[in-house]
Specification:
2 strands, mainly alpha, single chain
């Protein structure tokens, strides 16, 4: 069982540990039935699946039909990833409903959910870059280059985590806030994507 904190105590350190722990178990749910953490799990799961499908879509030794299947899977996971980000934001904003916003509170241009999504993606990059540093079939230059990238990725994640903690703390004190601007993805909607509704008319 992966240990997670209470929803109202969301901290980047627990979030990073959760992302890292889950990388070995993408696909199955190992968390309690807590709405916020389920949304975080869903977001991380679909980022894991996107990573896998993006790798597979770059193959050149398979039929085009397989790559097309990968591309369609990417669309599906990307939509669900974005849906999960919006659920995270909805749930966090519900927690902040009780907070009295102070005069002069500043609006953050990025939502907490988007930052959590970025931390998820960063954990994937760190994980896979670290694996590259452990390969035995490459030369020293490759290992050293990947180690340098790994250090930068870890620094990026540390900085982003600090920004998330600051935003959540400021929201809790009524000093900052963020809004959800829905993505309104059009490419997966048959009523909005002209290439899709054009197919129906043409048929």
């Amino acid at each position: 069982m992966v240990s997670v904190p209470a929803p109202q105590a969301l901290k980047s350190a627990e979030l990073i540990a959760f992302h890292d722990q889950r990388l070995g178990a993408c696909g199955g749910s190992l968390i309690p039935d807590v709405a916020l953490w389920q949304a975080i799990e869903d977001n991380h799961h679909h980022n894991c699946m996107l990573w896998e499908q993006e790798d597979l879509a770059r193959r050149r030794n398979v039929p085009d039909s397989e790559v097309a299947g990968n591309k369609r899977a990417i669309d599906g996971h990307n939509q669900k990833r974005n849906d999960a980000i919006e659920r995270i934001d909805d749930l966090l904003l519900q927690q902040f409903d009780r907070v009295v916003r102070k005069r002069g509170a500043k609006q953050n241009s990025e939502t907490a959910g988007a930052m959590i999504d970025r931390l998820s993606i960063r954990s994937l990059k760190i994980h896979h870059t670290r694996l590259q540093t452990r390969r035995s079939d490459v030369d020293r230059a490759h290992i050293d280059a990947c180690k340098a990238k790994l250090a930068t990725l870890v620094e990026h994640r540390t900085d982003l985590a600090a920004c998330l903690d600051r935003l959540l703390a400021e929201c809790e004190r009524g000093e900052a806030y963020f809004k959800i601007y829905r993505q309104f993805k059009m490419y997966n909607d048959p009523s909005l994507n002209p290439a899709l509704y054009g197919e129906r008319k043409g048929g």
